[in-house]
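Weekend entry, working from home. Most of the wet-lab plans are on hold until the incubator is repaired, so I used the time to fold the two sequences that have been sitting in the queue since the last round of cloning. Logging both here for the record. First:
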Amino acid sequence: MENASKALIIAGAILISIMIIGLGVAIFSKAKSNVNSQNLNSEVAQAQNEKFSSYIGDRMTASEVKSLMSVIRTNNITGASGDDIKTVYVSYDGQEKDPAEVSSSVKAGKTYKVSIKNSKAVKDSDANKDPQSISDTTEAYYSNGYIRIIWIEINGTK
């Protein structure tokens, strides 16, 4: 009888050990998938931002700015249907403008500075709101890493 009770205690201890090991494996795999998901999200944001990076510079021509506005319009139309917020706003000479307005405002013979002024990210609670006013300190990125605002300034003539 004494040996039977010891065998039951040992069997119970083995079952509890197996359950603890299984729980540890489950937690480890869940944490690993979260880390992989975060890496994937940053890669997706980087790929999204690549569309705009070739247009960032100090001496962009009017045709390059118009091309950028076309890319932004396409991005804003296609991005509106996705889960992540991808709307890119444009600040043209200190004022928020629609990309179509900027396209009609840029003039041949002038050069433009196209930039992202800072690396601040907007809070998730404010991400769906249009920026009321855009200044150099307005958050340039969404919290998911996507570009939120691109600044365009007139340099002058070539």
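Second, folded right after the first finished:
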Amino acid sequence: MTDEEEKTRLKEAIIALLDKRRENKTICPSEASRAVFGSARGNNREEMQRTRDVVRELADSGAIEVCQRGQVVDMSTCKGPIRLRRKDG
């Protein structure tokens, strides 16, 4: 799989997972990683970093929000676990 195909699949996985959740519910980025790379490999550090890079692209485009403890955070300054949700309205 090329880098661009991987990015596309990750973006599609994130959006599809969020579409399956009720409004204002979140997903963990690792769910998308597992969906694309497989459950045995989906939490590998390199794959999670690629997933976070795609999350940053989606957040920067306004498609999703990145949250910690229910509050929207800036990925460039946050540390620790994050959750993803659809952007309101």
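Plan for Monday: verify the second prediction. The mean pLDDT is 91.
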